[in-house]
Amino acid sequence: MTFGHRPALSGDDFLVAPSNQQAVQWIDNWPNWPGPLLVIVGPAGSGKTHIANVFINATGAKNVGIDMLGARDPAAVVEGATALVVENAKGFINGGLDEQLLHLYNLAREHDIRILMTAETAPARWQVNLKDLSSRLNTAPIAEINPPDDALISALLIKQFSDRQIDVGQDVISYLLSRMGRSFADVRRVVESTDHLSLAEKRRVTIPLVRRVLEDNSEN
Prior knowledge:
CATH topology of the largest domain: Rossmann fold
Low-confidence stretches: none
Shape: elongated
Number of helices: 11
Strand content: 5-15%
């Protein structure tokens, strides 16, 4: 399978696959969204932060953290922004920032600025006490990211090993696929640990070596 890619802030390419294609299409269609808000939803480790970084890289969006919105007037947050990113948006609700989020939304709509929010679940499942905010969140389009499938995990492994100039055989990739976790974070952790062990012992990356990596990771 051939994957498309988008540049992200980290310098790594974000691989476009069926599991994330819907979200990528929304990103590519910015700023031509039907409203000021898009919510990207997916389980932990599915790549929400990575695609948020793709959006920031492509648009110059301002990443709005909980501390920033809690300490500053939303008008100051919006000022000069081309777009906004609010990661783990449910955390803002849990942190009591309903009013600030509503103000941010209204200002973004007034100034024709788009907001990208990410979360593990859709807004309808959040406990939003502010009715005006709840109605705005629940009418926003949702783009789902699913956990990466085997084809994408394999492509990520090959790419990240290649980025570190590590030659890995298909037998090693197949071994890892059948035994490792199924998230972007798992891929990064396995590749980093394998690289460190390979360098420390001056050994090629083989099945016995990655078996030890997986055993060590399962114990930590």
